[in-house]
């Protein structure tokens, strides 16, 4: 065999297979890269194990979104601000776009990988879920609004079936039902204490719920298919959404009154809105990491648990009446979270079977009998 091929022949009858390896100067397609760093707020999650990644993301979601929820209710407690929910969303999208641009500039890879048409669709869903949700607070009390948002677990699963062709097991369905029923229980308890329902508010939050149910599945599919980063997703989806909202406010004439009101209360509006947007941006970064690493259903399960905690803190900080029904409803929600975690880790978490339980009971009886005989 010729020496120019770099192969040494020990037997002329032996066959050789040539493997071509691309040089370091060749650029691989981003669609086939299997190993890439996943950073969230400067934290490289790729170096940690899967359970550690999950705990870091959950801690980030709970920390920043609990502060986010407190600031959101604080803003709408400002007298006269309730009609300006869409303007708050405009400010929020503007800050998110700025934060996303700054974070993207700090990364080495600044390419946009997800197509623009996909971002336009994601922006519509993002505007729907956040704009309608903020606006609904002008018609509903905060706990009721949060409880309605928590009922998106089942729509997310339905969206996963139709958008991504997923199939969920009994544990996932049971988790969704337990969490939704538990949080509906919160609503019933709140209605008995301080009913504040409005048909317009219910319609707005229901539409926000539909958009929220779809957005997680669309984001998950886009990020996995095109290997897009969190900062890229935030920058393009919220900047396009900012243009949508600004155009809408200019068309209906809602921009002038909102600017005039906020100019009279700059600290309680723009100041709170900045902190509200900053904590929301940090929170959405961890949510996107959850979606990319563990899927939309796990992300929704975590954020739903966070919403339950937000409701509890809302009653603590804003002097709402308390009833023990909140405790039972909270336990039902926690059970739903456990079912979902078990479903995702069923190979590592082996629950005892009925046969095992019977064996333990019989063993316990034998031990008691032996102790009595002794």
TrEMBL record:
Family that this chain belongs to: Belongs to the nucleotide-sugar transporter family. SLC35B subfamily.
GO cellular component term, pick one: Golgi membrane
Identification of the protein by name: Adenosine 3'-phospho 5'-phosphosulfate transporter 2
TM spans (from-to): 54-72, 84-106, 118-140, 146-163, 170-188, 194-215, 235-258, 270-290, 297-319, 325-342
Membrane protein topology class: Multi-pass membrane protein
Localization, UniProt: Membrane
UniProt KW keywords: Membrane, Transmembrane, Transmembrane helix, Transport
One Gene Ontology term of the molecular function aspect: 3'-phosphoadenosine 5'-phosphosulfate transmembrane transporter activity
């Amino acid at each position: 065999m010729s020496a120019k091929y770099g192969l040494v022949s020990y037997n002329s009858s032996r066959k050789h297979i040539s493997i071509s390896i691309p040089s370091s100067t060749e650029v691989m397609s981003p669609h086939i890269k299997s190993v890439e760093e996943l950073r969230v707020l400067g934290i490289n999650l790729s170096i940690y194990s899967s359970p550690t990644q999950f705990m870091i993301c959950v801690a980030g979601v709970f920390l920043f979104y609990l502060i986010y929820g407190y600031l959101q209710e604080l803003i709408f407690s400002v007298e006269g601000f309730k009609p300006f929910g869409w303007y708050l969303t405009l400010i929020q999208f503007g800050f998110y776009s700025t934060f996303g641009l700054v974070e993207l500039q700090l990364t080495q890879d600044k390419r946009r990988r997800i197509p623009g048409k996909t971002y336009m669709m994601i922006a519509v869903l993002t505007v729907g879920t956040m704009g309608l949700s903020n606006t609904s607070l002008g018609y509903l009390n905060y706990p009721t609004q949060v409880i309605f948002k928590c009922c998106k677990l089942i729509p997310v699963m339905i969206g996963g079936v139709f958008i991504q062709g997923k199939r969920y097991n009994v544990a996932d369905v049971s988790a969704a039902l337990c969490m939704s029923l538990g949080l509906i229980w919160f609503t019933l308890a709140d209605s008995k204490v301080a009913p504040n329902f409005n048909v317009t508010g219910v319609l707005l939050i229901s539409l926000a719920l539909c958009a929220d149910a779809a957005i997680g599945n669309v984001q998950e599919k886009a990020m996995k298919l095109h290997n897009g980063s969190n900062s890229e997703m935030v920058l393009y989806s919220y900047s396009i959404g900012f243009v949508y909202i600004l155009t809408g406010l200019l068309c209906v004439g809602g921009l002038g009154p909102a600017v005039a009101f906020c100019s009279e209360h700059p600290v309680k509006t723009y100041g709170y809105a900045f902190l509200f947007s900053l904590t929301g941006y940090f929170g959405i970064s961890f949510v996107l990491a959850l979606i990319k690493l563990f899927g939309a259903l796990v992300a929704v399960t975590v954020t739903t648990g966070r919403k339950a905690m937000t409701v509890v803190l809302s009653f603590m900080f804003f002097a709402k009446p308390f009833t023990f029904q909140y405790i039972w409803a909270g336990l039902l929600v926690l059970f739903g979270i456990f079912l979902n975690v078990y479903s995702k880790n069923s190979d590592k978490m082996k629950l005892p079977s009925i046969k095992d339980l019977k064996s333990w009971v019989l063993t316990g009886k034998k031990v008691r009998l032996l102790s009595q005989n002794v």
